[in-house]
Amino acid sequence: MLRTLLQELVSSAVQSGEEIMLYGKSIDDVDEMQGVIPRLLDVVLYLCEKEHVEGGMIFQLLEDLTEMSTMRNCKDIFRYIESKQDILGKQELFARGKLVMLRTCNQLLRRLSKANDVVFCGRILMFLAHFFPLSERSAVNIKGVFNTSNETKYEKDPPEGISVDFNFYRTFWSLQEYFCNPASLSNAPLKWQKFTASLMVVLNTFDAQPLSEEEGAENNLEEEATTFNIKYLTSSKLMGLELKDPSFRRHILLQCLILFDYLKAPGKNDKDSSESMKEEINSCEDRVKKLLEVTPPKGKDFLHSIEHILDREKNWVWWKRDGCQPFEKQPIEKKTVHDGTKKRRPRWRLGNKELSQLWKWADQNPNALTDSQRVRTPTISDYWKPLAEDMDDSAGIEAEYHHKNNRVYCWKGLRFSARQDLEGFSKFTEHGIEGVVPLELLPPEVRSKFQGKPSDRSKRAKKEEMRSTSHQVEESQIATPASEIEGEGIRADAEASVAVMDTDVSTATGNNSQGGTPTPEPDEHQKQSPDTDVGQEAGQLEADAEVETGMIDGETDPEAESDHVG
After folding, report:
1. In the predicted structure, residue 18 carries a pLDDT above the cut 80
2. C-beta separation of 51 from 92 below 8 A
3. 476: closest CA among 525, 523, 545?
4. Same domain membership, residue 287 and residue 213
5. How much is the pTM?
6. How far is Cα 556 from Cα 560, in angstroms, rounded to an integer?
7. What confidence tens digit (pLDDT) does each residue in 332-380 have?
8. Pick from 176, 183, 119, 171: which is nearest to 150 by CA?
9. Is 46 domain-assigned?
10. Which regions of 337-469 does DSSP assign to beta strands (E)?
């Protein structure tokens, strides 16, 4: 009944000569902007949404309406479909009519001209992209099949009476055969060589004839968008004018980037392309990007936008190669732990999950640990070298760019010095962070500021001597109790020898008093040379040292004791 009513309304609108979507609109109703047919569609859509009628009815009416209308009226009908996209995309309606909507849009695309109705075709494709989910397999080209039927026809023979480089013309348009089917270049080295030779000719021509800013300003791309055509004219007479068109150049260079992006697609089998082919692709791609950057107007912005689009395209290719996994993820349900049971924590081989995964990811861990390129803790000299260069006045580095202003750098350096250079670390309290820098890294004029004073060195030497002396005394005190028994006998022998020596001295004194050799006076002792005094003192110190050593060790020489006694 509804389909019959819609057919009668369309026939009445055609007989009256009015547009279908505006038929039945009253002139007096200024606020009411819809005709009879849009109001009928709204009523059916409401009934479908409330489940009073079958959910696919609205889609069936839209298909019938597009089949009964001309292309001029179909634009208004599709505008209505776009306005109701959110309601039509609800799950209860979408599941019933998605196939009917897909069939309707495909029929419209077949009826439209790809050269004259480019904008309308784009609107239909954008609607399908938003209406269907990304995981819809009907909208995904799983096998990556190219539309090889889109051929570019051009002149094969040179025309008469026209001065044009026909070889370049034929070489230029022959590139479209490879752009139409990029897969043919993967397994055919001869085709690839022929393609690169032709491409180099075209790129050399673009380099030899650069476009100026004035030529770029003359061609307003925003105005051209309204009359954009999907195919360029291939007449040899227009070759010179097309080369001066920046939009024309951009489209050719963009086709090159799309082809290179396909040949470098992620997940593609590496056996299909050799190393030399990969190098040629990279060099050609860099050259094409440079030409796009210098093509006016706003070449850098255009290149940046194209690179962003190609990066997003890689994600799309990865998703298709992985089997078009759904993007929607179910929420994780929290499992309730039963009372009285403790959840056992998992054990990791290296202490935690991150380290265990890192160990598994490395193929050859022992080699990775001994690699010379491995990042290691720097030495004191290497770490403080940047700060030493800042302290050199001849370098001319401004104070605000010095490394000493970096708190993290200074903190790390103090930790290194505390572990590896304790003497330099002790200078921090007196000279600041610059005093911690090793002296050998500093220039001579700066090094003198941070060298230690002589008085400080003498005090430090005295402290070290006092430490060594106290250490020797402690050792002697430890060794003395062990030889007390033998020491008593040594003392008795020493007292006896002293008594004998006193007897000899008294005898010598008596001889002198009886007319022997006179005793020297004090003045004579003062006349002795200082070298003699020094020698006597040195000999006395050596004798004392020998006596002390003998007393500590508890051993005496028997021959020496007999001499003293005798």
Report:
1. yes
2. yes
3. 545
4. yes
5. 0.49
6. 8
7. 776 665 555 666 777 777 778 887 877 776 655 666 666 677 777 888 8
8. 176
9. yes
10. none
Q: Which amino acid is at 121?
A: C
DSSP symbols for 486-514: HHHHHHHHHHHHHHHHHHHHHHHHHHHHT
Q: Measured between alpha carbons, how far is 468 from 462 in angstroms, rounded to an integer?
A: 10
Residue at a domain's end among 322, 353, 370: 322
Q: Are residues 50 and 112 in the same domain?
A: yes
Q: Which domain holds residue 410?
A: 380-448
Query: Is 493 among the domain residues?
Result: no
Given a contact cutoff of 8 angstroms between Cβ atoms, the answer to whether 24 and 66 are in contact is no
pLDDT in the model for residue 76: 92
Does the bond joining 520 to the residue before it have cis omega, within 30 degrees of 0?
Answer: no
Amino acid at 155: E
432 three-class SS: coil
Asked if pLDDT for residue 207 goes beyond 80, the answer is yes
Residue in the block written with tokens 């059916």: 44
pLDDT at 504 over 50: no
Statement to judge: residues 413 and 271 lie in one domain: no
In a shared domain, residues 303 and 414: no
3-state secondary structure of 454: helix
Phi-psi label, residue 435: left if phi above 0, alpha if psi -120 to 50, beta otherwise: alpha
N-to-C CA span, the chain: 156
Q: How many CA atoms lie within 13 A of 417 on its CB side?
A: 22
Q: Whole-angstrom Cα distance, residue 489 to residue 486?
A: 6
Upper half-sphere CA count for residue 172 (Cβ side, 13 Å): 28
CA distance 80 to 62: 10
Q: Is 327 domain-assigned? A: no
Q: What is the pLDDT of residues 137-172, one digit of tens each?
A: 777 777 778 888 888 999 988 887 766 788 999 999
Domain identity same for 416 and 314: no
What average pLDDT does the segment 398-422 reach?
88
pLDDT range class, residue 267, cuts 50, 70, 90: low
Smallest Cα–Cα separation from 105: which of 89, 86, 126?
A: 126
Which tokens sit at 14?
Answer: 């055609």
Token pair in block for residue 171: 């070489």
Tell me which residue of 23, 97, 3 sits closest to 54, measured CA to CA: 97
Do 249 and 112 sit in the same domain of this protein? no
Q: How confident is the model at residue 219 (pLDDT cuts 50, 70, 90)?
A: low
Tell me: the pLDDT tens digits for 101-139? 999 999 999 999 887 898 999 999 999 989 988 777 777
Contact indicator for 331, 337 with CB cutoff of 8 Å: no
> Which of 32-36, 107-111, 396-400, 428-432 is most confident?
107-111
Domain count, the chain: 3
In a domain, 35, yes or no: yes
Burial class (CB in 10 A: 0-12, 13-18, 19+), 422: exposed
* Structure tokens belonging to residue 135: 């995981």
- Claim to verify: residue 312 and residue 393 sit in the same structural domain: no
Shared domain for 106 and 174, answered yes or no, is no
Choose the final residue of a domain: 422, 448, 474.
Answer: 448
| Residue 125 Cα distances to 98, 130, 541, angstroms | 15, 9, 111
